[in-house]
Amino acid sequence: MPATEGSNGGYEVKETLKAHSILWNHALSFIKSMCLKCAVELRIPDAILSNGMAATVSELSAALSIPPCKTRRLRILLRLLSREGVFESHVNLSGEEAFGLTPVSRLLTSADHRPSASPFILMLLDHHLVDPCQQLSRWFHLADAATTPFEMTHGKTFWDLAGDRPEFNDLFNKGMASDSGFVMDVVTHIGSSAFRGITTLVDVGGGTGKTVAALVEAFPELRCTVFDLPHVVNTAPKIPGVEFVGGDMFVEVPRADAALLKWILHDWSDEDCVKILQCCKGAIPTREKGGKVIIIDIVVGAGASTQASVETQLLFDLEMMILTTGKERDEGEWRKLFVAAGYNNYKITPSIGLRSIIEVYP
Ligand SMILES: C[S@@+](CC[C@H](N)C(=O)[O-])C[C@H]1O[C@@H](n2cnc3c(N)ncnc32)[C@H](O)[C@@H]1O
């Protein structure tokens, strides 16, 4: 019997149609990520900024050299991204639809006072990182915990591929440097006590040295070493007073009062994290002599106060599963690592949005 409006059958049809639309939204959500990537590649945030914080589609098309036959298509992209909060849309004094920056797209500008997040977004949405997502169901059937979807796709681990392909190495290092600029901007603004009073620091897996560059600026008396794989430190720009050392953090870490691990341990399995933490312990003095490890990473459940931030932590957990053998950890999981590596105490400060500073004492 056909369902009529108001009957229970009609209610079920409405619920089914709502569910159907939600399903379509989930299936098409990757387009949002790709539109964001496109906006960054076209440098739309910078074009809006240069136009005085808002621009019509015609102004943007002219500024970005987009041919008139694509102007209507550009509007569609801007409307989707405005709905998602990346831009905002309004009617300007001439009665035309104009698009402006929001706090989200301000992060993507390179002319703003903060380091631009654009290189990090381009790195996250690069095909090397996106393609492995296609392997997930095949990966779940694979009875081998050590092979990642990334390795199934590229035939190599993330770090080996970066060592082999200079353009991927460059894209990744620029992405990480952009994130380090952002994080250290927050750390120096909030005046974190974690770095105060330290004389020497080794940034383990420190990339091209962006974190350390901000640290020596904030704490001029601090002497720093950047320690990373040879293919990374060999391409790093020189920073006055900073030593760059190539090596393997699973073998030996250069000695210092404090060892920094920013966004390192979430790349690795528990077993590997214990080895890295033990190598760091071998590089620092006792707690009484000022020894400590400073970790900057997600602590699941800490710092995530909204529905959206809980979702971001979950997404990062999946990202780590796809790209590496690592994962995001809650406090209990972190504690187990510290105990297994022989540390005595730790302090968590959830001060960098979704990420925390964890000070770990030998
Ligand atoms: C996610 S990145 C973090 C970079 C930097 N700490 C930051 O947050 O910008 C991980 C870093 O670990 C480095 N790495 C990977 N394996 C390593 C190893 N065995 N020894 C030293 N560094 C390593 C990578 O080259 C990369 O620079």
UniProtKB/TrEMBL annotation:
<keyword id="KW-0949">S-adenosyl-L-methionine</keyword>
<dbReference type="GO" id="GO:0008757">
    <property type="term" value="F:S-adenosylmethionine-dependent methyltransferase activity"/>
</dbReference>
<dbReference type="GO" id="GO:0032259">
    <property type="term" value="P:methylation"/>
</dbReference>
<dbReference type="GO" id="GO:0046983">
    <property type="term" value="F:protein dimerization activity"/>
</dbReference>
<dbReference type="Pfam" id="PF08100">
    <property type="entry name" value="Dimerisation"/>
</dbReference>
<dbReference type="InterPro" id="IPR036390">
    <property type="entry name" value="WH_DNA-bd_sf"/>
</dbReference>
<dbReference type="InterPro" id="IPR012967">
    <property type="entry name" value="COMT_dimerisation"/>
</dbReference>
<dbReference type="InterPro" id="IPR001077">
    <property type="entry name" value="COMT_C"/>
</dbReference>
<keyword id="KW-0489">Methyltransferase</keyword>
<dbReference type="InterPro" id="IPR016461">
    <property type="entry name" value="COMT-like"/>
</dbReference>
<feature type="domain" description="O-methyltransferase dimerisation">
    <location>
        <begin position="24"/>
        <end position="110"/>
    </location>
</feature>
<dbReference type="InterPro" id="IPR029063">
    <property type="entry name" value="SAM-dependent_MTases_sf"/>
</dbReference>
<dbReference type="GO" id="GO:0008171">
    <property type="term" value="F:O-methyltransferase activity"/>
</dbReference>
<feature type="domain" description="O-methyltransferase C-terminal">
    <location>
        <begin position="147"/>
        <end position="344"/>
    </location>
</feature>
<dbReference type="GO" id="GO:0102303">
    <property type="term" value="F:resveratrol 3,5-O-dimethyltransferase activity"/>
</dbReference>
<protein>
    <submittedName>
        <fullName>Trans-resveratrol di-O-methyltransferase</fullName>
        <ecNumber>2.1.1.240</ecNumber>
    </submittedName>
</protein>
<dbReference type="InterPro" id="IPR036388">
    <property type="entry name" value="WH-like_DNA-bd_sf"/>
</dbReference>
<keyword id="KW-0808">Transferase</keyword>
<dbReference type="Pfam" id="PF00891">
    <property type="entry name" value="Methyltransf_2"/>
</dbReference>
<feature type="active site" description="Proton acceptor">
    <location>
        <position position="266"/>
    </location>
</feature>
